[in-house]
Design brief:
The chain is an alpha/beta fold. It is 29% helix and 17% strand.
Length: 296
């Protein structure tokens, strides 16, 4: 198995190295609006001019205290598939599971609302509308459209706002929950949840209420990828994903590194032997799984 993983990883790296056409940009959040804070570092934006365009953009949202730049390996892979790709720097310093033991059933709901939109409703995070995920993303798209007109970023804007129907929102860990939350608020091209959400209320023994809310993105466009030994508890994650999508928590399929996925299911599991099961879903050995999740 270790030899197989090594071979798959080397193949992935060789593919990326030969696809030197991928255009990579690193943009300071302050360059898009001087009122936007730099939290950890730059936003990143990628596309491959040589790839056949899918006319869709993947917004990848990283997890707690992670950097946008650390999403570059998976972002590069999506770029070679023909997507425009963005990862944003945002206020992600508070771990989602802060709400797990809360006696306030709206703790997760308010957490997601404030980080995504800057609505002042949460007692555990402090994010204004200027520094919200949605505003940071919108301002970055406006910036890219102005500074890289040949890049085609204008395809994803309507006025100064994102054209959500052309955008796949993906996220890892905390970001998985943000992706799912935005899928409730907008009719997206897709929602991809990696190692999350973590929005399970232990005191009430159920997923946070927002996850049951009827959303605008059809369940058929939503996928989750989890590890069976995730330290955040795969059973909680499965319950959360089931609440978000309406699919049964038991309606899963096991995937293997380096192998294509032949399934119609939307909840994918892996049991990769790794010291970091939570991060396993971002491992390049699962590039075939990522392709399945975006319909390739």
């Amino acid at each position: 198995m270790k030899l197989l993983l090594l071979l798959v990883t080397l193949l992935f790296l060789a593919t990326v190295s030969t696809r030197c056409q991928v255009r990579f940009q690193s943009i300071a959040p302050t360059a898009t609006d001087n009122h936007i804070r730099i939290v950890h570092g730059p936003h990143i934006a990628l596309y491959d001019p040589a790839a056949t365009s899918r006319h869709e953009l993947v917004l990848m949202i990283e997890g707690t205290e992670d950097l946008a730049t650390r999403m570059r390996p998976i972002d590069s892979c999506f770029a070679t598939m023909g997507f425009h790709v963005i990862s944003i720097d945002y206020l992600n310093n508070v771990n989602t599971v802060t709400c797990r033991n809360s006696t306030d059933s709206s703790c997760f709901d308010n957490f997601r609302q404030e980080i995504n939109f800057g609505t002042p409703v949460s007692s555990v995070v402090d994010v204004d509308s200027v520094n919200s995920i949605v505003n940071r993303f919108a301002k970055l798209l406006v910036y890219l459209t102005a500074h890289d007109p040949a890049g085609g970023w204008a395809d994803f804007l309507q006025g100064s706002q994102p054209r959500w129907e052309r955008i796949v929102v993906a996220g890892h860990s905390q970001g998985a929950g943000h992706a799912a939350y935005l899928g409730k608020c907008y009719r997206l091209a897709g929602v991809l949840m990696f190692s999350g959400p973590q929005d399970y209320l232990k005191v009430f023994d159920r997923p946070a209420p927002w996850q049951h809310r009827k959303g605008l993105t059809p369940p058929a466009r939503q996928f989750a990828f989890l590890h069976v030994d995730d330290p955040y508890n795969v059973h909680f994650q499965l319950a959360d994903v089931a609440a978000v999508t309406g699919f049964s928590a038991a309606d899963t399929t096991m995937v293997l590194p380096g192998q294509s996925v032949h399934s119609t299911r939307h909840i994918l599991l892996n049991n990769l032997d790794t010291k970091d099961p939570h991060g396993s879903t971002l491992d390049p050995v699962f590039v075939q799984v990522w392709k399945y999740m975006v319909g390739l």
